[in-house]
Write a structure and sequence with these properties.
With 276 residues, the protein is of the alpha+beta class. The protein folds into two domains: 14-163, S-adenosyl-l-methionine hydroxide adenosyltransferase, N-terminal (Rossmann fold); 175-274, Beta Barrel (Elongation Factor Tu (Ef-tu), domain 3). The protein has helices at 27-38, 56-67, 109-114, 138-151, 156-159, 206-211, 258-262, and strands spanning 14-19, 43-48, 75-79, 90-95, 98-103, 119-123, 160-163, 175-176, 182-189, 195-197, 213-217, 220-222, 225-226, 239-243, 249-253, 269-274. The strands form two sheets. Strands 8, 9, 10, 11, 12, 13, 14, 15 and 16 form a nine-stranded mixed beta sheet that branches. Strand 4 and strand 5 (98-103) form a beta hairpin. Helix 1 packs parallel to helix 4. The radius of gyration is 21 Å and the shape is elongated.
Length: 276
């Protein structure tokens, strides 16, 4: 744990938390307590603690969808860590004028895919860790005190060494499968049952949609596109596609769960082809 001179100014810093810990146990509160001991003026925003247990891809997507809403110098503490206690590395990442703290298990893959100029540090300076370090709770004993150190102005280079080989998930971008065709996938299903794909307007352009496209998912074909959920431009179609707030194309059903209607899950393929 680091100590701060009484004459050193306390900094007000925004720290977000994203975990799969839930709120029934003491885990989240303990991490906040560690950071407040370092910087009593730290301010916290809980992005979510309801990531499905051990689901790194869900954590990676949620972090990607949320981080750009925050101001520069925000510290994002993300812990979805099924490999806690193993040899996986603790990381600090400087990207998009913000900082990210957490395990090297692919959790930051989508941030790194979007932020090409990111700098990645393997945290090796153990003087910033809480003692003793539990083998089962690095969120409290490594990641929280490191986030606290960053909130006091400690530079990432003081925490560890630069690396260029972080663990990564499969690329978020869809694959091209012939002229005008795309092979996408479901990357998230929200609590309303909307199925978020990895398609953005970079791959599926307005001109392509205007020309007519078909989305095929588990035997179901979707051709209707809406501007908003209650848009009834194509009221004949129960299922429709819509651009969601995170910038990805979603497959939805008005007032129903599209995921339940189609019996689909995260990871299933969505093929995109021009109408014939």
């Amino acid at each position: 744990m680091i100590s701060v001179s009484p004459t050193k100014p306390r900094l007000t810093t925004l720290i977000t938390l994203l975990t799969d810990f839930g709120l029934a146990d003491y885990f989240v509160g303990a991490m906040k307590g560690v950071m407040l001991r370092e910087n009593p003026r730290a301010q916290f925003v809980d992005i979510t603690h309801d990531i499905p247990p051990h689901n790194i891809e869900a954590g990676a997507f949620t972090l990607l969808a949320a981080y750009q809403a925050f101001p520069a110098k925000t510290i994002h503490l993300a812990v979805v860590d099924p490999g806690v206690g193993s040899a996986r590395r603790p990381l600090v990442i400087a990207a998009g004028k913000q900082f990210f703290v957490g395990p090297d298990n692919g959790l930051f893959s989508y941030i790194l895919e979007r932020e090409a100029k990111a700098r990645i540090f393997h945290v090796t300076n153990e003087k910033y860790f809480r003692r003793p370090v539990s083998r089962t709770f690095h969120g409290r004993d490594i990641f929280a005190p490191v986030a606290g150190a960053l909130s006091l102005g400690v530079k990432p280079a003081e925490l560890g060494t630069v690396i260029t080989d972080p663990c990564r998930l499969a690329l978020l971008s869809p694959e091209r499968s012939g002229k005008g065709n795309l092979r996408a996938r479901i990357i998230h299903i929200d609590r309303f049952g909307n199925c978020l794909t990895n398609l953005t307007q970079r791959e599926l352009t307005p001109a392509m949609i205007e020309g007519g496209v078909r989305l095929k998912l588990k035997g179901t074909t979707i051709t209707a596109f809406r501007q908003f959920f209650s848009d009834e431009g194509d009221h004949r179609s129960k299922l429709f596609a819509i651009w969601g707030s995170a910038g990805f194309l979603e497959i939805a059903a008005q007032n129903h769960s599209a995921a339940q209607l189609m019996k689909v899950a995260v990871g299933q393929e969505v093929s995109v082809s021009a109408k014939k």
